[in-house]
Design a protein that fits this description.
- It is a single chain.
- By secondary structure, the protein is α+β, with helices and mostly antiparallel strands.
- About 30% of the residues lie in helices and about 40% in strands.
- A hairpin with a 2-residue loop joins strand 6 and strand 7.
- Helix 1 crosses helix 3.
- The longest helix is centred in the last third of the chain and has 34 residues.
- The radius of gyration is 16 Å and the shape is globular.
């Protein structure tokens, strides 16, 4: 039986065509240029719409570097992505679900993350929930800015 999960859910509406948003946000190798928190993203395996990769964060002030392997399954037709950590580190488990929904003002990108921290982890479920929730908002705002700039650049070229 799996422990009760902590959960965060955040969304942002991005004024860009779905195809552009999908392509940019699912180009894992380019995540260090999309997200501010990643120092490196290494593709380990890719089979069709499934990618296994290693993410490495920028070093913490004390020099500690966090890195882990995740697997991501992209379903463009249904506009969803499911991911989980393969190397769980301080997490007992981490499951992530991304959805993309067309709205009148753009595409709503939603991230739902369910997880549970291991005993002895640097943060408990409540602390990690607060950290993930705060950081998701920062990263989504950055992605919105970068994807909307790319959409404007593409629209400018198309004229």
């Amino acid at each position: 039986m799996r422990p009760t999960a902590a959960r965060t859910e955040n969304s942002v509406v991005i004024d860009a065509p779905f195809d552009l948003l999908w392509d940019i946000t699912n180009d894992v190798a380019n995540w260090p240029d999309l997200f501010s928190e990643y120092a490196a993203a290494e593709i380990l395996e890719q089979h069709g719409d499934t990618v296994r990769f290693r993410l490495t964060l920028h070093p913490e002030p004390d020099g500690k570097v966090w890195s882990w392997v995740s697997e991501r399954v992209m379903d463009r037709e249904n506009r969803t992505v499911r991911a989980h950590r393969v190397e769980t580190g301080p997490f007992a488990f981490m499951h992530i679900h991304w959805t993309y929904v067309q709205t009148d003002t753009g595409v709503e990108m939603r991230w739902a993350q369910e997880f549970h921290m291991k005993p002895g982890a640097p943060l408990d479920d409540a602390g990690m929930t607060e950290r993930i929730d705060r950081n998701s908002k920062v990263q989504m705002a950055l992605i919105k800015e970068r994807v909307e700039a790319a959409a404007r650049a593409v629209a400018g070229v198309a004229r």
